[in-house]
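Slide 14.
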Amino acid sequence: MINIKIMNILLIGGTGNIGQRILKEALDKGYEVTAVQRKPETLTLKHPNLTVKKGDLLKEAELPSLIAGKDLVISAISLYAGLTPEQFKRAHQNLINALKEQTQTRIIAVGGGTNNEISGGLRMLDSENIMKNIPEEYKPSIFVHGEVQKLYEASGLEKWTYFNPAAMIQAGERTGKFRLGTTNLIADENGGSIISFEDYAVALVDEIKNQQFIGKPFTIGY
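Slide 15: predicted structure.
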C-alpha cells in the first residue's frame, strides 16, 4: 500500500448529482476541499473548509496550478453537464497529463456502472445482450467511460482509482451499508445492481483514508 496522508482535496464537478454528495461527505469528515467549477456561482454552499475556484479541465494549461499542493483530486465531472463524450475523454486525458508532473497527488475518478464485468470477465458495455436493451442516445456516454478507464490503466500513474457505481445509481438514503468489489458487478440475489448517490459518496470518501483500491478500479452495490 502506498502510504499517503490526504488532507487537501481538489474536487472537480461538485454540483452534480454525485459531486454534491461527495462534497458534503468530505466536508462532514473534516477534509479541506477546493471545488473547481466552470461556473463557480453555481456552487452556493458555504463552509469554513470549502474554497471555490473557477477552472476547466478542457484548459490543460490551468491544471498544474489547480493541482499544486493538493493531496487528492476527485473528478466527478459528468457527461450530463454539457460535455460531449469527446470532451469528457479529453478532460480526463488533460488531468492525467497534469498528474504525471505531480506524481505525489492521487486521483479518484467517478466511473460508469457498465464498466463492471459480468460472467466470464465480460464487461457490461461489451455484452450484446445487455447493450441491445440500452437506448441509443445513452451509448456514447457508456462507451466513453470504458475508454476513460483504459486511459487510467495505461497512464503509468501509480495513484489512480476509477470508481464504477452499480448498474443503477440514483437518489436515495445514506445507509452506510453496502458491498465493495473490484471489477465484477455487485448484484443482489435477484440480479439487481443498485446504489444510492449518498452511499456511493460515503464509499468514495471512505476510500480516501482506507486506500484499498490504489492503482485499480473498484465498484459498489447493495
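Speaker note: The beta strands are 8-12, 32-37, 50-54, 72-75, 106-110, 160-164, 168-170, 179-181, 194-196, 216-221.
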